[in-house]
Amino acid sequence: xxxxxxxxxxxxxxxxxxxxxxxxxxxxxxxxxxxxxxxxxxxxxxxxxxxxxxxxxxxxxxxxxxxxxxxxxxxxxxxxxxxxxxxxxxxxxxxxxxxxxxxxxxxxxxxxxxxxxxxxxxxxxxxxxxxxxxxxxxxxxxxxxxxxxxxxxxxxxxxxxxxxxxxxxxxxxxxxxxxxxxxxxxxxxxxxxxxxxxxxxxxxxxxxxxxxxxxxxxxxxxxxxxxxxxxxxxxxxxxxxxxxxxxxxxxxxxxxxxxxxxxxxxxxxxxxxxxxxxxxxxxxxxxxxxx
Length: 291
Fold this sequence. Notes:
One of its GO terms (biological process) is carbohydrate derivative metabolic process. This is MurR/RpiR family transcriptional regulator. It comes from Anaerotruncus massiliensis (ex Liu et al. 2021). The protein is built from 14 helices and seven strands. It is α/β, with parallel strands linked by helices. It has two domains: about 1-75, Arc Repressor Mutant, subunit A (Orthogonal Bundle), CATH 1.10.10.10; about 110-260, Rossmann fold. Strands 2-1-3-4-5 form a five-stranded parallel beta sheet, sandwiched between helices. The protein has a two-stranded antiparallel ribbon with strand order 6-7. The longest helix is centred in the middle third of the chain and has 19 residues, at about 100-115. It is elongated, with a radius of gyration of 23 Å.
């Protein structure tokens, strides 16, 4: 239902029961909070039973309340400010075991990522990465850590990996100006989506490069021009983004590419081990250090 959900609820309000109208009015006026409330919590907030909330979800066309809740979350995913994020999640984490709550949510996000990521897109992305002349990677703000991680390992595998790392829009386009049909562009962005990453993705697509989007849904602006969409759940935890599922997906991507490039990687790491040993890159312990 996407952007029309609140309009639909408003249109249906006159035909609702008294209790359902209370739910509808709260959702329309406080959808940012309702999106993260359980059915029980929403019911107690507006003064109706949990079963009334569940029936309301069915009334507006959903199989159950969790589906309605996810639709609300998708609606606001890219709209909340950092302050609003803190307000929305304070009720969820207050008086809770924060460690268990946050890790539990991350486990759920990895599970949903495994269910929702297209195996066909994943395999196709691996194939075009392995065949690319040059690989361009961009991720800014919180996604920059993911881009750097991916770039670090891809640089061990491929000779032409370019991490686009700049705060200037003009410099960004200067770094990708030579991208072409033989190249691959990997854009990484999650709500709130980076305008620079989306613009770079559009440029890469117009230049004929294969575009891989690592994002959270097919409704992401990064998915518009992507040849392959790798979806990872990245819901907010208070004022920060949870990047556990995206990082896990990137791990899988690196391993899958590595398996296809096994012989090259073996030679690369054999050479690297000699360099690391010669220049004492890593601390030696125990017998290795001659103790």
